[in-house]
Write a structure and sequence with these properties.
Elements (H helix, E strand, L loop, with lengths): L19 H13 L3 H13 L5 H23 L4 H23 L10 H4 L5 H20 L1 H7 L11 E5 L3 E2 L7 H15 L4 E5 L14 H10 L4 E9 L5 E9 L5 E5 L9 E6 L6 E4 L4 H14 L3 H8 L9 H17 L3 H14 L4 H13 L3 H14 L4 H13 L3 H14 L6 H10 L1
Parallel strand pairs: 1-3, 1-4, 2-4
Antiparallel strand pairs: 4-5, 5-8, 6-7
Helix pairs in contact: 1-2, 1-4, 2-3, 3-4, 10-11, 10-12, 11-12, 12-13, 13-14, 14-15, 14-16, 15-16, 16-17, 17-18
Length: 445
């Protein structure tokens, strides 16, 4: 593919014989086309040949150093994409700022970011730094065992239902920011309030480990497994110009795969328990860009239900914004929430949960079944009959649904249709025993 680059002829000009306008135009074009390395090369060649720009030359060298360090760390995976993007933006902005000051006739660079303002070290400083580094390496060798202890996983004191590990958040701005401790405090208070058997620890020494880097989801899973944690949270933090702190958090859940036992409303004498998706079906990894507790609270709500603490389960799952989670999670959270409502004798609230489930999973039989029996109990046979019919369409041998529909039809004075359902039940299971069978028999007599 042929491209026409209108400013190409200026590239052949030697920076020493360029005038300032040509230089500025070329460098700005190179930055506009994301050719930062070329822009730095052009700028340094121009400044190096002009003694009056020595101070600006030092600034340009520092800008180039920041660019090279960021590029190397990015290639090694030792810096987050967000941090690299911030540094590249700072590099480009600093080049433009430097050009503006040169064009204005300034002789001393002013107002540059601390990352590019520091002067380059002299030879004696480099030698001294090297000696200090050698001493540090020697000290590291002698105290290696101590360092291994310092970088070990945090201690989770005793077995719990869930151990949560927080990796220190990477700070994208100046100053100290430690949002992981705020997250830890809020989660600990939540667990204490609802007596959840959970431990939460911050891995303070993580970045002291050899080759430590900001985790991706795969690495986070390995760290969590190594530290025997069931949930790991990490991310970045940045103080904005308005003073607020912006956090982008990520999490990964390592579920054990337990199944939830939920109540299945049926006629007396039938099995009263059904199972639902494993807890591991909740998003195993993802980004949390709002309050980190929002999705973590869902997980804790599921754990509270599993521990029989239905008040805590409701407190966690009720506020969940179902528009922010996928349909599999809506199924899991709303069915568990409904089950807690049923346990506490609040079927009308359970109904609302079943409605949410059926909007995204219209053929989910456990929700249809429980909703149908609640409608039947509430003397709403018309709605119950529709729900039981949907179940029968999905499973024509479901004797519970056939018996429920027969009962609804009796309430609606549709005895002939009810008798048809009873006949079908007898064909499927001659030994079936349902109260509605006796009622149809009495009606027939």
């Amino acid at each position: 593919m042929n491209q026409t680059v209108f400013f190409l002829p200026s590239i052949h000009l030697t920076p020493l014989i360029m005038n300032l306008l040509e230089l500025s135009t070329l460098i700005r074009q190179q930055i506009g086309q994301a050719e930062t390395a070329a822009a730095l090369k052009t700028l340094l060649a121009f400044l190096q040949g002009n003694p009056k720009h020595k101070a600006f030359y030092n600034i340009a060298l520092n800008i180039q150093s920041l660019y090279s360090r960021t590029l190397q760390k990015e290639l090694k995976g030792a810096v987050t994409q967000e941090q690299a993007s911030v540094n590249y933006t700072l590099v480009n902005d600093s080049i433009i700022q430097l050009l503006d000051q040169i064009e204005s006739g300034a002789s001393i660079p002013k107002g540059f970011d601390p990352k590019v303002r520091a002067q380059r070290m002299q030879l004696w400083q480099l030698i001294l730094t090297g000696i200090i580094a050698l001493v540090a390496v020697g000290a590291l060798f002698f105290f290696l065992r101590k360092d291994q202890v310092q970088t070990a996983c945090p201690d989770f004191p005793e077995p719990s239902q869930l151990d949560v590990l927080l990796i220190p958040f990477v700070n994208l701005s100046e100053g100290e920011l430690k949002p992981e401790y705020g997250i830890k405090e809020r989660l600990e208070k939540y667990c204490a309030d609802y007596k959840l058997n959970t431990h939460i620890r911050v891995y303070d020494s993580y970045f002291q480990r050899a080759e430590a880097q900001q985790p991706d989801f795969n690495l986070a899973g390995s760290i969590a497994s190594e530290c025997q944690a069931g949930l790991i949270i990490w991310g970045t933090a940045e103080r904005l110009a308005n003073g607020r702190i912006d956090c982008t958090s990520k999490f990964k859940f390592l579920g054990k795969g337990e199944k939830f036992e939920l109540q299945k409303i049926q006629f007396e004498g039938a099995t009263q328990v059904d199972t639902i998706l494993s807890i591991s079906t909740i998003s195993r990894e993802g980004n949390i860009t709002k309050d980190v507790e929002e999705l973590v609270a869902i997980l804790f709500g599921l754990l509270a239900h599993d521990q029989g603490n239905h008040e805590a389960a409701i407190a966690s799952l009720k506020p969940a914004d179902t528009s922010r989670v996928d349909t599999a999670n809506i199924l899991l959270t709303q069915m568990v929430l409904a089950d807690s409502y049923l346990t506490l004798g609040q079927p009308e609230k359970a109904q609302k949960c079943y409605n949410r489930v059926l909007k995204v999973h219209p053929e989910y039989k456990l929700a249809l079944n429980n909703q149908a029996f609640i409608q039947l109990e509430n003397k709403n046979p018309k709605e119950a009959e529709k729900l039981f019919t949907r179940i029968i369409q999905l499973d024509s041998t479901n004797t519970q649904a056939l018996a429920g529909r027969a009962a609804a039809r009796i309430e609606m004075k549709q005895e002939i249709k009810a008798e048809e359902d009873v006949k079908r039940i007898r064909e499927i299971d001659p030994k079936a025993r349902f109260p509605v069978l006796e009622r149809v028999k009495i009606i027939r007599q």
